Amino acid sequence: MRAINIGILGLGVVGSGTVEIVNRNREEITRRLGCEINVTQGSARSTNKPALEKFDIDITTDSYAVINNPDIDIVAELIGGTTLAKELVLAAIAKGKHVVTANKALIALHGNEIFAAAKAQGVRVAYEASVAGGIPVIKAIREGLTANKIDWLVGIINGTGNFILTEMRDKGRSFEDVLKEAQALGYAEADPTFDVEGIDAAHKLTILGSIAFGIPLNFEKTYTEGISTISTDDVEYAKELGYEIKHLGIARKVDAGIEMRVHPTLVPDKQLIANVNGVMNAVMVMADAVGPTMYYGAGAGSEPTASAVVADIVDVVRYMKTEEVRQVPYLAYQTDALEAQQIVAIDDVQSAYYLRFHAEDKSGVMADITALFAAEDVSIEAVVQKEAVSDVSPILMLTNVVKERAINSLIEKLSALGSITSKVVRIRVEHLQ
Ligand code: HSE
């Protein structure tokens, strides 16, 4: 087979990593694929790319020059964002080019439209790099678990957030300090609030939920809560209780529909996923035939993400010789078999909870508190009263599994007790069984 030409839109952190890997591992890739792939053209805001000078690439500031180049077979969109990136991807598809993208926001928000356009043109759109960086989790779920019904999946799917939580816990570094380092290392999004407020993780969870359950992409229905409100006190208290606080994306099939939620979560410290630290990501999947499986690796950074981009390029080259009926569907399920399902409202989600508040250190206070728990039918799994300072004690409570609505009502009543002197902090707890 003739050599395949790749055009890259965006020669930044991931684009440069892609060029580097294609050239460094040319021999291995060719031995696997049976033909050469060459990055022959790329677009960037500036053509001044000293790190890429040693490679034979035509660098232009005009992305359309790449899309319209008849010698380019596959366009890799590595620009990010959803406005220009969407225009360029749709333009590439209209030109009959296959597309590889690392853009989770683009797929989560506009994937339904993009896949419909690609299907109409008979081209592939591959997006392995959009979720969990270098971990081939899309391929694992879409193809490796194709025999299974999936019950749930949970993931640490934002490297920046996990890096921040880990450094804060282990080194007592400030949130801002760690975030700056994550930006310098190329982990963070252009707008880092996407990382710390859970939006980036929600984009990725939307994609995982879709391929796991055969539902259309539904970003706007994914519940999202960030880590910016997590205090070092809660990290410490959680540890004392035998838990780690992790920012999890959770997609679960329940009787009422599908839960899709991203939020800080206490996870028992014995669970593998509780021990995923730094920029590493992990996705744990519970499926009916295989049981639990877990996928672990670098979730961000130049070459880990580029590793997934190159794997997608190789896959797309293989599909170029495969008739459509034999191709794996874009979202794992046949397009006409995707079914919209109820996404469970967060008030109806069932979870266990960690509550933490300060209460006056005097007789009868605990009796008043536990009476409110009984009135809301919330059972207490554990309670710890820390030593009082200035007649006020921190109290930590773990509940059994209840509807979020009941916990919210309980918190409202607790907050109205005169003896509780602080805000009631609430963090969900998942035992992952
Ligand atoms: N900002 C993302 C992260 C990059 O930190 O995980 C990879 O999607």
CATH architecture of the largest domain: 3-Layer(aba) Sandwich
Helix content: 25-40%
* Alpha carbon gyration radius: 24 Å
Parts with pLDDT < 50 across at least 5 consecutive residues: none
Total E-strand runs: 17
Bound molecules: L-homoserine
Q: Helix/strand-derived class?
A: alpha/beta
| Biggest pleated sheet | 11 strands, mixed
Strand residues, percent: 15-25%
- Give the CATH topology of the largest domain: Rossmann fold
CATH class of the largest domain: Alpha Beta
Q: How widely separated are the two ends? A: 48 Å
By DSSP (H or I, 4+ residues per run), the number of helices equals 14
CATH superfamily of the largest domain: NAD(P)-binding Rossmann-like Domain
Commentary on this structure:
With 433 residues, the protein is an alpha/beta fold. The chain folds into 3 domains: 4-136 and 302-337, Rossmann fold (3-Layer(aba) Sandwich), CATH 3.40.50.720; 137-298, Dihydrodipicolinate Reductase, domain 2 (2-Layer Sandwich), CATH 3.30.360; 346-429, Alpha-Beta Plaits (2-Layer Sandwich). It has 14 helices and 17 strands. The protein has helices at 13-24, 26-33, 63-67, 84-94, 104-121, 137-144, 159-171, 175-184, 193-196, 199-213, 232-240, 302-319, 365-375, 404-416; strands spanning 4-9, 37-43, 58-60, 74-77, 98-101, 125-126, 150-156, 223-224, 243-254, 257-268, 280-287, 291-298, 350-360, 380-385, 392-399, 402-403, 425-429. Strands 7, 8, 9, 10, 11, 12, 13, 14, 15, 16 and 17 form an 11-stranded mixed beta sheet that branches. Strands 3-2-1-4-5-6 form a 6-stranded parallel beta sheet, with helices on both faces. A hairpin with a 6-residue loop joins strand 14 (380-385) and strand 15 (392-399). The longest helix is centred in the first third of the chain and has 18 residues, at 104-121. The protein is elongated, with a radius of gyration of 24 Å. The N and C termini lie far apart (48 Å). The model has no long low-confidence stretch (mean pLDDT 96). Bound molecules: L-homoserine (HSE). The site of L-homoserine has 11 residues, from helix 7.
